[in-house]
Design goal:
Two copies of one chain form a homodimer. By secondary structure, the first copy, chain A, is an alpha/beta fold. The first copy, chain A, folds into four domains: 118 residues, Rossmann fold (3-Layer(aba) Sandwich); 124 residues, Alpha/Beta hydrolase fold, catalytic domain (Rossmann fold), CATH 3.40.50.1820; 107 residues, Rna Polymerase Sigma Factor, Chain: A, CATH 1.10.1740.110; 206 residues, Rossmann fold (3-Layer(aba) Sandwich). Chain A is built from 19 helices and 19 strands. Chain A has an eight-stranded mixed β-sheet with strand order 1-4-8-5-9-10-11-12, sandwiched between helices. Chain A has a seven-stranded mixed β-sheet with strand order 15-14-13-16-17-19-18, with helices on both faces. In chain A, strand 2 and strand 3 form a beta hairpin. In chain A, helix 4 packs across helix 6. Chain A is elongated and about 90 Å long. Chain A starts with 14 loop residues before the first strand and ends with a strand. At the A-B interface, helix 3, helix 4, helix 5, helix 6 and helix 7 of A face helix 3, helix 4, helix 5, helix 6 and helix 7 of B.
């Protein structure tokens, strides 16, 4: 992503507005009240007449309202997410009205613990009340009221910003069309709390901390810089540190045999600690990390599912493969709870070696995902489209370019299409580029969801406006309640699964009908090759050699018949298929049909 | 492992001996000299007359000489590795003479930075010279000289103790028969250096540190406890912290909305920090972590392979699956370098959720591994056995019990045995419980090594005295130079591999001859079942159903012939086999033989 003038929002000023007056203070989660509250914010782009193009960005621990552009012509660095926000950028300020505010308790313009306590006339210090993520979201809502923004197209945030996104969706379910939660979690795990606690310990124990009353005196710089160093280690991955620093020494090829910083990684941390001390406030660090530790949607609502029950928006949950602070598993928990509640959720685990910091660095991949999700949401809003899926062209009018390896042509798609009843809900396992789902959306107005293992294909589906889960289907579909779908489709995939039995039973649990297509291993060409040539068969439908085939289980129509009988699965339709025609093949199908489609359902006790 | 009186070494006193005199100081790696040096140590068991039963244990960062038993009847806790050391325990003090000493720079009796500097009459503090792992090993050698121990049966250590083990093997290659390096590394990665650096930063920045001259005054307790807390987080895994603490609050069900420690994990860290301050010295913490940061065998010798080139002992390298401080990958690096140098190396990655601390906790699994390795080494020493493998009975005279799932009966073993020339070097891929290797050791006096994926089977092999690598063979065998072996054996496994081609080419690289056996998919029963029944074949050799088979590629003798031709592999012998007889089957083998054995070699350009 270029940061040149053309794609920049340009020079932008941080503004401040009072959202809570002193005489009508805000009641906080801790039970105390706080007022007045001022909020620092920036906006980019223009709110349109329909007021349906507003996007709120929530920042992370050390961020602020200054997302994009520069505050002055001399600024050395643009805003913290300039790669993502600007005209023509993923969050496109030529289309959307973008807002970002400094959070409550912060130190970049919004009321925080180092501001003057009107009751005492000196800085709050530790007299500032403990704030929570929920409190910060309520303050953001006040800001939007002040700005006369009645509704959000999307609320977006990474890390602690993602916590705010989730809180927004839960606290104000009607207020947004889409929630984009990136590299975040519904609650910190013990390890993350531990790192935060050690950092706070270093600040609180700094001899200069003085109960937070260090203003105008020496700052607790050592404590804050130690906290920042610990944080920084958790933002990078072991791999990225190895690549960036390894064991290189700074300034010398020989060990100095003293306790000065000499490894590059040491001097880097020293620098990060020092730079942070110059721009951030120790009190704010205490309050914001505590808010993160306290954030716990499960605790607040009894369970994740209950928390999400009332949400109404679409969700994009994204994680990064090497993020060990807010792990992919934690994002999957969010996705699974939303899926279980029948919410419209898309999940992508982006491959990256950058660790947690990837949400600030993986501009290309994350940008495509975010843009695809926001643009398609806006297109839905504009066309009031009910179904989960767009017309062939995306909102921007561009058909996304398909990666080469994704170009699949499947003779069975047409037939599967014909088997599905209009307006039904369909789960497509191994949905690829979403071709079949798009067809079904267009032809049958289905409500479709996909599951796909390939990251590129997942993003491709998102760009098309489809809801898709990035997952290996063999890992299970526990998140879906029984009979969530009318149809589950497993097209040309069963022969590549490690455990077809488990997957098939799971499909019959989550869907009323299961449509499976596969190549017939007992086709006469296969039989002949094994019988007369004595070799592993190789045909148009099974085109691989024995040693390089992705197909790891081989089955015939008869095998599948037996399989269904054993698993107590009822075969509603069995459609042996020819090579190219979609007309069923009726004579000696297990001998003549190179492939087949089955529609099955499970006998239930009732 | 019980710690009852019967298996305890009982009451034991730490002793101290001067190993370096003031007038003949030791020259250290940093160039400075140090003297006098006293060493605190404990011994258990008795050195035998042959003096061939001595085992040296090296401790980790916060350890000391007190490994086992109690120092007094009132001791609340036994020594730090009491689970591993005692009569009848894995390191059996009824058989072996066990020694452990506090390391140089420590604070438990061996000369360190808080001892009095004879030159100034006050504690060394930061005037103590920087010490290295190599220095500590030289001091340990002086101790053994004092104790008149001329040779070690084994040197054992975990974490930083493992670093000392590697240094021992490199610095004194003739001095030991076995080196057991557990949960360790040849050099810290950037992430570990970073954690150490932040900890040292906290100590050095503590207002009470005073250049290490805090003795008799307030200690830099806050700094040391922060360092310890950071360390502690890295010793546990995320999973074990989640399991042990989760997000539970201590003492209350409600948040306290202040900055006191309230999550269980916080109070645990507070406790660990406090307890550490009471028993450990801040100066020693600085010097020992610096020694770990500096440890770098690659830097010292140019490459790992060069470092290990002169080593003579057997190596056991063990790691723990959830250890993110000293990762399994780092242990594999050691194993691969040793393998590349043709050294006798065994590797096991023990499944554990305990993280790095597992080396102190996984008594059962690690105990079996350590005992198996030391006992079989001793048996070799006693019998002066040249080959890599024991007779059917282990040193202890007990045939290890085989786990049920490992009981494989293979008709092809007998024939493979007959194909291998005496005294050759054999690599058995997927060696299972080591049955074939044991046979080959006994019948043919081969020098055998195994590769096996299953942890239990790996340990079983170790108990039998075999050298085995715990690894998925599809991950590659890069560590072995070309033609390391006379034979590579792949018995009944090729059909279960994801990528048979890559594996087979790799086998032909590392071995002069490759012996492969597999079930014949074109056996007449298979052909008949597909031809006449139209189902996926199921036979005695291919007993699984299509959906639950571990076999994921199917091949016939003819397929394998073609395969070899394509890969430019020369078939030296092709032995079609009957069901039970080991006599070759000569008539229409691709039709009548249910299985086959091939002996192949690769045509080389030369």
């Amino acid at each position: 992503m270029e940061s040149d003038a053309k794609n920049s929002v340009g020079i932008i000023q941080t503004q401040t507005v009072r959202v809570v007056e002193a005489d009508a203070p805000l009641r906080l989660a801790c039970g105390k009240t706080l007022g007045p509250i001022d909020v620092a914010y920036e906006t980019y782009g223009t709110l349109n007449d329909q007021k349906d193009n507003a996007v709120l960005i929530c920042h992370a621990l050390s961020g602020n309202a200054h997302v994009a552009g520069c505050n002055s012509p001399d600024d050395r660095k643009p805003g913290w997410w300039d790669i993502m926000v600007g005209p023509g950028k993923p969050i496109d300020t030529s289309k959307y009205f973008v807002i970002c505010s400094n959070i409550l308790g912060g130190c970049s313009g919004t009321t925080g613990p180092s501001d003057v306590n009107p009751a005492t006339g000196r800085p709050y210090g530790l007299e500032f009340p403990i704030i929570t993520i929920e409190d910060t979201v309520h303050v953001q809502k006040r800001l939007l009221d002040k700005l006369a923004v009645p509704h959000l197209l999307a609320v977006v945030g990474g890390s602690m910003g993602g916590m705010q996104v989730l809180q927004w969706a839960v606290s104000y379910p009607e207020f947004m069309d889409a929630a984009l939660c990136i590299a975040s979690t519904t609650r910190l795990n013990a390890q993350s709390i531990a790192f935060d606690a050690v950092g706070r310990n270093a600040i609180l124990g700094d001899p200069y901390f003085n109960d937070g009353q260090y203003h105008g005196q020496t700052n607790p710089a050592r404590g804050l810089s130690i906290a920042r160093m610990i944080g920084h280690i958790t933002y990078l991955s072991e791999e990225s540190m190895r690549f960036k620093f390894g064991r290189t020494l700074r300034g010398s090829t020989d060990y100095t045999y003293d306790f000065n910083s000499e490894f590059s990684v040491e001097t880097y941390l020293d620098y990060q600690g020092q730079a942070f001390v110059e721009r951030f406030d120790a009190n704010s660090y205490l309050y914001i990390t505590k808010a993160m530790d306290y954030f716990d949607i499960v605790r607040e609502y009894g369970s994740l599912r209950q928390a999400f029950a009332a949400t109404r928006c679409r969700f994009l949950i994204a994680s990064f493969s090497s993020d060990w602070l807010f792990t992919p598993r934690q994002s999957e928990d969010i996705m699974e709870a939303l899926g279980a509640e029948g919410k419209d959720v898309t999940y992508c685990n982006i491959y990256s070696s950058y660790g947690h910091d990837a949400f600030l660095l993986e501009a290309a991949t994350l940008g495509r995902l975010i843009a695809g999700f926001i643009d398609s949401t806006w297109h839905r809003v504009r066309t009031a489209q009910r179904v989960r899926g767009e017309k062939e062209k995306t909102a921007a009018g561009i058909k996304p370019k398909l990666p080469d390896h994704a170009k699949r042509v499947r003779v069975d798609y047409e037939l599967i299409d014909s088997l599905i009843e209009p307006n039904s809900r369909v789960l497509d396992l191994g949905c690829g580029d979403g071709e079949l789902l798009m067809r079904l959306v267009q032809d049958k107005n289905v409500c479709g969801e996909g599951v796909e293992l390939d990251e590129d294909l997942v993003i491709h589906c998102v760009q098309r406006g489809l809801s898709v889960i990035h997952r290996d289907i063999e890992r299970g579909l526990e998140m879906y309640p029984n009979e969530t779908f009318d149809y589950a489709v497993l097209s040309q995939t069963i022969q590549t699964l490690r455990d077809p039995q488990r997957v098939l039973l799971e499909l019959h649990r989550v869907a009323r009908r299961v449509i499976v297509s596969f190549p017939n291993f007992a086709h006469w060409r296969c039989r002949a090759q094994l019988m007369f040539k004595g070799i592993a068969p190789q045909t148009r439908q099974l085109p691989f050699r024995w040693y390089n085939s992705p197909n790891i289980h081989f089955l015939s129509l008869k095998d599948y018949d037996h399989f269904c009988a054993e698993l107590d699965i009822h075969i509603e339709q069995k459609i042996p298929l020819g090579k190219i025609s979609t007309l069923p093949l009726r004579i000696l199908p297990n001998f003549f049909a190179p492939q087949a489609i089955y529609v099955t359902s499970k006998y239930h006790a009732s």
